[in-house]
């Protein structure tokens, strides 16, 4: 890259190699799934900022094939972690986008709050990222003592911090001029490209899978879908900014209504036996050994499970041949799809607008090449 363009034009044959690369990449995840029975570990690392969402889509597809019911408590715990993950992901987006726009100090404030969210993940799962907390049938374990209070403390301060972010950015004339009115795209074009998430909602289309096709008890919660009017970079920023508040509302409602009960399905064909049974029951010990070493068998069939990730529709397609390994796994990642909108967005714009628009797209390269 150079000021005003690029160093030189692409060489002969380069375009063909790029097309070949894009063509083979979707098959790589299938190969990993075929090799690994525990492919959820790989799945979580695709969109590395939305690991709970990756796991939710995969577990949802497998649970659909198994036709098992996830306990209500597990569904609520999933929602809480998903919305905390949405906040953490948006914090990375806002902090790094502010760097691109020249508001350097915003980066440190956003990552300050992100560390608080990661502390909560570490407390509930033992890991700050790629937690593998979601499991087929529920979650890995129940929340520890004191976790709920820390979550409430976090969602209490987060709206105030979001107000501070808005005050800092929206009083910055340089940031506003680089966002407002730049690179708009209408919802008809976005829909024709398959774009979803905040980009589509910024253009005025209130499409959100949490409302349109609720999963994991999202229909139990009252929240709004922020939308824009113009579909420019400023609207894209404002939609994500508003989602901080809505996620906090969802988390608070989930904590208030958190039901009692098991954190994972009681179906022993899928769930490991309780630890206390291993010392007294030979059958439980054998069952535990077989599940860990061989996995569980899924009836033949195929399922697609879409959810609303921080970047749009994230869907997982799973095909089973009746064995303990999936015959095929394919992820529909919104970063890959949304990136198609970059060219029409920045057509006839300045290079500076390209930088701002790419920041507002919020693409995750791990999800693009997966």
Note the main attributes of this structure.
single chain; 370 residues; mainly alpha; Cytochrome-c3 Hydrogenase, chain B; three-stranded antiparallel β-sheet; 17 helices; 5 strands
Structure notes:
The chain contains 17 helices and five strands. It is mainly alpha-helical and 370 residues long. The chain has one domain: Orthogonal Bundle (Cytochrome-c3 Hydrogenase, chain B). Strands 3-4-5 form a three-stranded antiparallel beta sheet. Strand 4 and strand 5 form a beta hairpin. The radius of gyration is 22 Å and the shape is globular. It starts with 13 loop residues before the first helix and ends with a helix. The relative contact order is 0.17. The mean pLDDT is 91.
Helix content: 55-70%
Enumerate the strands of the largest sheet in spatial order, edge to edge or round the barrel.
Answer: 3-4-5
Whole-number average pLDDT? 91
Return the CATH topology: Cytochrome-c3 Hydrogenase, chain B
Query: What shape does the CA trace take?
Result: globular
CATH architecture: Orthogonal Bundle
Strand content of the residues, in percent?
5-15%
* Radius of gyration of CA atoms, rounded to a whole number: 22 Å
Which structural class do you get from the secondary structure elements? mainly alpha
Question: Sheet bearing the most strands, described?
Answer: 3 strands, antiparallel
